[in-house]
Amino acid sequence: MTDRPPQISRLIDYEALTLQAMRDVARGALKRVAEKGMPGDHHFYVEFDTTADGVVLPEFLQSQYPERMTIVLQHQFSGLEVEPGQFRVDLAFGGIPATLTVPFAAMTAFMDPAAQFAVRFAPEAPEPDAEASAESDNASAPAGETASEKGAERQDGVVSLEAFRTRRGLSPSRREDGEPA
Questions:
Q1: pTM, two decimal places
Q2: pLDDT tens digits for 44-75?
Q3: CA distances from 139 to 14, 68, 110, 136, 164 (A)
Q4: Cα 86 from chain centre
Q5: How far is Cα 20 from Cα 26, in angstroms, rounded to an integer?
Q6: How many angstroms separate the CA atoms of 125 and 154, rounded?
Q7: Euclidean distance between CA atoms 29 and 5, whole angstroms
Q8: Which of 21, 32, 35, 168 is 20 to 30 A from 129, alpha carbon to alpha carbon?
Q9: For the chain, which residues make up each domain, given as ranges?
């Protein structure tokens, strides 16, 4: 293992790139459903931070869910619209119709139990300034839930995605020959 100056590790922010890619997976799945409908037994659980910028909820939901909310998109939803930075959906809560707007940056989890797919991440934070970025390189605190799963990061700095799959109740990946990856 080579010792590199802390500033080198911030040239490519792989954690941010990974989190963005996982949000893109959720965006893509929602977009397909908006265009073609929900296929088969698929259904989505979407958890989000109700205090995040851009989240739009009716007052009765905001007071009922002051910090986090999980919605289920399965049989009874309509008007799903997916834009680059957010999605909008019509749902009913206790028979009361409501339109929700959720920025992808506010999502804290996206799950499709039918596909055994689940990802959890912290809401996006504003970009840190250069000084704060340099300080965080020296800090030992994890930046987000996806990177801070206990045992996910080996001593050589490689993050094992298998740790996330097994902790979420998903079966480990298999190679083509049937052996664990």
A1: 0.64
A2: 999 999 999 999 999 999 999 999 999 999 98
A3: 17, 28, 28, 5, 23
A4: 13
A5: 10
A6: 25
A7: 39
A8: 21
A9: 6-126
Name the residue with tokens 């250069």: 130
- Alpha-carbon distance 109 to 120, whole Å? 4
What phi and psi values does residue 109 have, to the nearest 5 degrees? Answer: -160, 150
CATH 2.30.30.220 fits 6-126, yes or no: yes
Hey, what are 49's tokens?
């931070």
Q: How confident is the model at residue 6 (pLDDT cuts 50, 70, 90)?
A: low
Q: Are strands 78-82 and 44-49 parallel, antiparallel or unpaired?
A: unpaired
Q: How far is CA 74 from CA 10, 35, 103, 111, in A?
A: 40, 15, 20, 12
What b/e sequence results for 126-161 when a residue is b if at least 16 CB atoms lie within 10 Å of its CB, and e otherwise? eeeeeeeeeeeeeeeeeebebbebeebeeeeeebee
